[in-house]
Amino acid sequence: MKSRKRILFFSIGYEKKISEIIENPEHYKPLRHGMKGIRRAHIDPFVLTFEVMGNEKHVVFLDFDHHDKIYL
Predict the structure, then answer these.
(1) What Rg value do the Cα atoms of the chain yield, rounded?
(2) Which terminus of the chain, N or C, has fewer Cβ atoms within 10 Å?
(3) Is the pLDDT of residue 8 over 70?
(4) Which residue, among 13, 14, 23, has the nearest Cα to 42 in the 3D structure?
(5) Range of the domain at 11
(6) What is the rounded distance in angstroms from the CA atom of residue 56 to the CA atom of residue 42?
(7) Has residue 29 got a pLDDT over 80?
(8) 8 A C-beta contact, residue 31 and residue 40
(9) How many domains would you assign to the chain?
(10) Cβ distance 62 to 49 under 8 Å?
C-alpha cells in the first residue's frame, strides 16, 4: 500500500475488519477477469483488496483506495 493510503487506513481504525478478514478470508467476494485470485472487502467508501496464499490461508493485503479508484 502506498504510504498515504496506509496512514488513512490505520487512522480510521479498521483493525476489526482486518481481524475479520484474517479469520475468514473466504467470506469476501472474489474478483474476476484481470483481478482473478484477488478478493475485496468494502470499508465504508473504501475497498481493501487482498489475496489468500496457499492452503495455510496466509492473507496478503494488496491495496486500499476509494471505491471509484481501486479498479482503475
Answers:
(1) 12
(2) C
(3) no
(4) 14
(5) 3-70
(6) 24
(7) yes
(8) yes
(9) 1
(10) yes
